[in-house]
Amino acid sequence: MMETKRRRRRKASVLQQLGSNSGLELQNGLDYVLMSTGIIGAFVHGCSLLIFLKFFADLDNSFGSNANNIDKMSQEVLKYTFYFLVVRSAIWASSWAGLYPTFMNSTTKSGFIS
Which superkingdom heads the taxonomic lineage of this protein's source (predicted)? Predict the structure, then answer.
């Protein structure tokens, strides 16, 4: 009986020190914007990998279908190389959008960046 009262008091004092929403009470509007941008960036990054794999499969198919015509195969490879460049740029931008806001949020909260 005495142990449970002591445990309850200890738990209450810990909750009082932490507060009810200790992680969210320090957030402001910019933090919510940064977190939303990070979530959207991570989602786009995950979806863009599927698009990248589809272009890679089309490139492999163009090798087989144009094996007898070297000029046509060269044109197809050049086209898919451009697609790869565009898709990889989108993947890079979306991964940056997923990581940079989280970095800025944590560094501003820890006091490294004012």
Answer: Eukaryota
Residue linked to tokens 């800025």: 104
Chain centroid, CA 59 distance in Å: 27
The model's pTM is 0.51
**CA–CA gap between residue 24 and residue 44 (Å, rounded):** 26
CA distances from 74 to 54, 59, 65, 84 (A): 19, 11, 12, 15
Cα–Cα dist 8/99, whole Å: 40
What ranges do the domains of the chain cover?
33-114
Q: Are 96 and 41 in contact (CB under 8 A)?
A: yes
pLDDT for 34 equals 78
| 84's tokens | 């790869």
Return phi, psi of residue 38, to 5°. -65, -40
Q: How far is residue 102's CA from residue 46's CA, in Å, rounded to a whole number?
A: 17
